[in-house]
Backbone:
């Protein structure tokens, strides 16, 4: 596991967050109150293979990345401050781009399930699934859904190869996933999205604004994000097009974010 980088986060923001914005005692209490072994067992596949990029570096300066209880309990308290103008507005921007009336939805790289729960609230009749590689993140996601009274299916899995049926979803979403994976993985995920989407189905990818990040290199230095530079040099539009998705478009939201959407053609090209 790589050691922490000398990021702006490590040097300035982390001490500020832990002094003023995050109640560390409360998080410690929460972490200790969860029986992680028992809770992760509900999601964990004994034969789950983790891709190399996922286990070979830190994310957000957390040693061990997402395969830790620390990442799972600190994710929401930190994320609420790093998605200006407001985490809810940013997630809503993705929801507003939905043009289908879905009966089956999957949220890839769902993390602690914030977008997944929003999807279920927006489409209460739909069957909603959240998929993530980290059983720890899924524990937090399932608690969030339970607290919100939402029935959501949580699955441990790799978005590159979900093992789910061909043409089985009307809507596939991925929020804040692509800046954390190498571009070749983003491309593979979109090929998988194409496979699991029904003809006419829609994919929505919410993430950092690639053209802004490209022009503002210091933004990539804030957090320990091993793949954000490569992400900013790519194009989600082009990756979607290469995967066979059509009608692809990207809209910026509040300069920092972008929502890219595409459709699986109703008839194969
Ligand atoms: C920055 S978090 C985003 C979480 C959530 N979607 C959100 O909007 O807050 C990235 C998540 O993607 C997951 N992840 C990374 N690579 C993945 C992959 N190949 N398959 C499934 N999940 C993955 C991580 O475990 C982590 O929970």
Residues:
């Amino acid at each position: 596991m790589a050691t922490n980088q000398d990021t702006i986060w490590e040097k300035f923001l982390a001490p500020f967050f832990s002094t003023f914005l995050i109640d560390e005692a409360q998080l410690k209490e929460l972490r200790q109150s969860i029986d992680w072994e028992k809770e992760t067992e509900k999601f964990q596949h004994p034969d789950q293979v983790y891709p190399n990029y996922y286990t070979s570096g830190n994310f957000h300066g957390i040693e061990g990345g997402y395969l830790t209880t620390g990442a799972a309990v600190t994710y929401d308290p930190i994320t609420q401050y790093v998605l200006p103008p407001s985490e809810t507005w940013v997630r809503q921007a993705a929801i507003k781009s939905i043009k289908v009336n879905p009966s089956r939805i999957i949220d890839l790289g769902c993390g602690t399930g914030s977008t997944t729960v929003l999807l279920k609230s927006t489409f209460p009749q739909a069957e909603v699934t959240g998929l993530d590689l980290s059983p720890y993140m899924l524990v937090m996601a399932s608690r969030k859904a339970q607290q919100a009274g939402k029935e959501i299916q949580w699955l441990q899995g790799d978005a590159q190869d979900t093992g789910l049926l061909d043409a089985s979803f009307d809507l596939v979403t991925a929020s804040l996933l692509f800046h954390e994976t190498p571009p070749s993985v983003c491309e593979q995920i979109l090929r998988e999205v194409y496979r699991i989407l029904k003809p006419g189905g829609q994919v929505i990818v919410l993430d950092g604004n690639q053209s802004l990040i490209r022009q503002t290199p210091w933004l990539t230095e804030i957090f320990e994000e091993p793949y954000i530079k490569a992400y900013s040099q790519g194009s989600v539009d082009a990756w979607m097009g290469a995967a066979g998705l059509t009608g692809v478009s990207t809209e910026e939201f509040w300069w920092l974010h972008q929502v890219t959407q595409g459709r699986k053609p109703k008839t194969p090209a």
In short: The radius of gyration is 18 Å. The CA atoms of residues 100 and 202 lie 7 Å apart. The mean pLDDT is 90.
